[in-house]
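Consider the tokenized backbone below.
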């Protein structure tokens, strides 16, 4: 879903204490911004919103840095964070914020991949996942498959939002149910970690200041050491930390 509606305020603190952004990630972020736009555009022509009114199609999947794929526009702009509520979407502790979503389907792209870990699908209330890649058959739709560039389903990703950094997994892809191919979307749990409980299925973070870093290679894929059966977003995030910290050190 890419409604691109900015929040006026964030009234409640995020579910977890923010992870400090490591120095090497700060340097990565600064270099990306100062460069303005990437030079190795694996795919370009994407937007932040999938509506026909969004005419800024200068966003790209970038391969400038070895071992990672990231998102960037022009003029130093990064991506936004719309909210995805696809998948199991079983409310936790009465949290029904996904009910506000106007564009939800009952499964994620990698539903079959997570079954090996004893769950039926990813749950947007618990699993911090990123929507990455674009798949469609409509005429003129911009497709991008990260797997063609070495990224694997359920790969761990790092997300820098403000002065915070959290981990997620590549858990879903953007379809062509809307006119344009868009980027910048994450599960409700990850969006809440970044921007607080004011986030819901119909209201995300519209500023292009979020850095998504996807790691390539088989050793980036989250495995059984991750707590897939976690009962909360905090538990799942904590279980990704050791895995993600290892990848970040090599950034």
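A designed sequence for it:
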């Amino acid at each position: 879903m890419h409604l691109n509606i900015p929040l006026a305020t964030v009234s409640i603190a995020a579910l977890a204490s923010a992870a400090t952004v490591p120095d090497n990630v700060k340097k990565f972020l600064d270099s990306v911004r100062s460069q303005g736009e990437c030079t190795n555009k694996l795919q370009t022509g994407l937007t932040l919103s999938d509506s026909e009114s969004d005419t800024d199609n200068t966003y790209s999947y970038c391969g400038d840095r070895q071992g990672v794929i990231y998102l960037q526009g022009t003029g130093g702009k990064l991506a936004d964070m719309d909210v995805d509520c696809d998948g199991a979407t079983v409310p936790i502790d009465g949290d029904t914020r996904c009910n506000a979503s106007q564009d939800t389907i009952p499964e994620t792209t990698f539903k079959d991949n997570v079954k090996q870990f004893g769950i039926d699908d990813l749950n947007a209330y618990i699993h911090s996942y990123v929507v990455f890649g674009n798949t469609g058959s409509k005429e003129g739709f911009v497709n991008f498959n990260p797997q063609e560039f070495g990224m694997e389903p359920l790969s761990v990703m790092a997300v820098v939002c403000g002065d915070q950094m959290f981990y997620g997994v590549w858990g879903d892809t953007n379809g062509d149910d809307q006119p344009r191919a868009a980027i910048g979307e994450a599960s409700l749990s990850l969006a809440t970690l970044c921007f607080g409980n004011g986030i819901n299925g119909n209201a995300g973070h519209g500023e292009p200041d979020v850095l998504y870093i996807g790691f390539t290679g088989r050793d980036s894929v989250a495995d059984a050491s991750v707590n897939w059966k976690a009962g909360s977003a905090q538990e799942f995030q904590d279980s990704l930390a050791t895995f993600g910290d290892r990848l970040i050190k090599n950034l």
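Residues 233-249 form the longest helix (17 residues).
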